[in-house]
Backbone:
């Protein structure tokens, strides 16, 4: 930290770090989201939920019965392996195969079947479905283990592998999540740009990060052409001044969730004229 308060902050940095660790949980979801990631997430979830069975007497008896049936076959395999291995490594006197982790094996023998019109294993789905499944599962598991902590959800390129229409749907999901939890994303997609509060967009270039001050900064950073320039909208409402724009936008958002959603998705834009004399110019510009 630079400037005033630097000395005070540095003397208290350990208690501050402890406070953050005890009250905040961060969950990072990388841009690479293969089906194995979803399986690992569900595996951890199942392990936690099934752990209670290990103390169940009926469950223990069933596991023991299966172990007793398997062990003679495993002993035969052990003998064969011992003879073969000892030819190469004379010091090996015995090999013993056990099934002590049988209970664990039962708890991890599962498949994730997703029915999106065709009920098949998640690993056979497209990259987009796998990506969204991994994100949703990670969010669920994170919330399950939060306790009293607040969650910061960090997603790298959530638009990866998704069709533009699906990205629009994902944007709304992320907006809904952000009402309860902190959401930080990295993106190259203009669809996921925060249009309502420009300052919430952080532009990272050449190792430096700074808040965006205007939409033009974001266009330049993303390399967006005029044809997809984040200016156009399906419907534009022109008002006289900046204060009118701010007030009307707030009123529309407050009175109607549909209008608020339209403003958020850039379907409806409220813009100002910088004075009534600019009406003809601004109207012609948007047309």
Residues:
């Amino acid at each position: 930290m630079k400037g005033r308060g630097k000395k005070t902050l540095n003397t208290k940095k350990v208690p501050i770090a402890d406070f953050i660790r005890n009250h905040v949980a961060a969950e990072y979801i990388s841009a690479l989201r293969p089906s194995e990631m979803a399986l690992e997430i569900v595996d951890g979830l199942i392990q936690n939920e099934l752990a209670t069975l290990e103390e169940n007497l009926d469950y223990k008896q069933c596991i023991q019965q299966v172990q007793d049936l398997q062990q003679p076959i495993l002993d035969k395999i052990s003998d064969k392996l011992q003879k073969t291995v000892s030819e190469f490594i004379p010091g090996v006197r015995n090999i013993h195969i056990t099934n002590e982790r049988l209970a664990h094996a039962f708890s991890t023998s599962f498949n994730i079947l997703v029915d999106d019109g065709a009920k098949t294993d998640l690993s056979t789905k497209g990259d987009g479905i796998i990506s969204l499944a991994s994100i949703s599962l990670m969010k669920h598991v994170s919330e399950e283990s939060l306790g009293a902590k607040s969650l910061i959800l960090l997603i790298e390129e959530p638009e990866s592998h998704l069709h533009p229409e699906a990205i629009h749907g994902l944007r709304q999901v992320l907006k809904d999540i952000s009402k309860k939890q902190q959401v930080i994303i990295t993106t190259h997609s203009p669809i996921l740009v925060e249009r309502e509060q420009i300052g919430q967009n952080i532009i990272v270039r050449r190792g430096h990060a700074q808040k965006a001050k205007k939409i033009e900064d974001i266009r330049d950073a993303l390399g967006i052409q005029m044809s997809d320039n984040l200016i156009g909208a399906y419907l534009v409402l022109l008002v006289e001044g900046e204060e009118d724009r701010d007030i009307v936008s707030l009123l529309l958002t407050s009175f109607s969730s549909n209008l608020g959603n339209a403003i958020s998705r850039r379907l409806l834009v409220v813009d100002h004229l910088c004075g009534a004399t600019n009406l003809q110019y601004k109207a012609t510009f948007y047309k």
Notes: The mean pLDDT is 82.
